[in-house]
Amino acid sequence: MDRDEWSLAKEVAGNAARKAGELAKERFGSKLTTHHKDERGDLVTEVDVEADRLIVEMIMAVFPTHRIYSEEAGESGAASDWVWHVDPLDGTNNFALGIPLYGVSISLSYQGRIIIGVVYDSVMGLNYAAVKGEGAWQEETRLEAKPQGDLTKSTLSWIQGHVVGKDDRKALDLRHHLEHSVKRVLRMWAPSLTWAMLARGDLHGIVLYNSEGEDLYAGLLLAREAGVKVTDFYGQPVSWLEDSAQDAGGSSQQGGSAASAKGNELEKGVYLVAAVPAYHEELLKIVQAGI
């Protein structure tokens, strides 16, 4: 794919995200059929399934040779270096509970590197898009994350994966440490919208604990292209955002977690610290003190 095809991919993703978001907004507050996807209680509704099908069909109609991983349908398409990740309704629990905080996340990667990310805020009707090396945008406005003030008086956000149990002592201790280190730590349960807030400069940072999935990649690129520095808990770069494995300093394809390389007791997973360069080192030190 050349740059013109990248632009086409961004357009397709944007249109698909908007249609899926509009579908969700139309059904918001109505009687829903819900069920639990697993023993942890993660919810899925018929809107998730319908929106998932809509997005996958729109992508496959234009890029039939690409691979797609979607939250509800799983894998589809042919084996390919070009891989889409789709979360058709990021924030399903919020949606099902009547909390107006949910969106759509779509990304395209080439050989494990994210090149296009689209996040759609379904309630506000706002489209966020990023192209690797070309910047991040909220509709027609270019995003530059420039938070102000002391980090200790700021608001951060905490994102954790569904695999993190209530008895995960390391997660509990780290979150408790963060809450005592800064003014406020948000938990929104809609990760893609959280990354959009960081890209806008509304948050001073994000700490992500053992979370990986279709709701991560688009927001990650959006924040990076808005000027945010993203590393693992040991300050190592994230391979998904680098040009090559060498550029990522040998970090893993699974997001660059250096836990096993450092001999730390954290098991292999995705653990990220994200903030603009002016605050990243300070936030990283707070996180390291908490683990």
From TrEMBL:
SUPFAM superfamilies given in the database record: Carbohydrate phosphatase (SSF56655)
Annotated binding of Mg(2+) 1, by residue: 71, 87, 89, 215
Pfam families: Inositol_P
Keyword Magnesium: yes
Residues involved in Mg(2+) 2 binding: 90
Cofactor: Mg(2+)
Gene Ontology biological-process annotations: inositol metabolic process; signal transduction
GO molecular function, one term: inositol monophosphate 1-phosphatase activity
Keywords for the protein's UniProt record, in alphabetical order: Hydrolase, Magnesium, Metal-binding
Keyword Disulfide bond (UniProt): no
Signal sequence bounds: none
Entries under PANTHER family matching the protein: INOSITOL MONOPHOSPHATASE, INOSITOL-1-MONOPHOSPHATASE-RELATED
Protein known as: Inositol monophosphatase
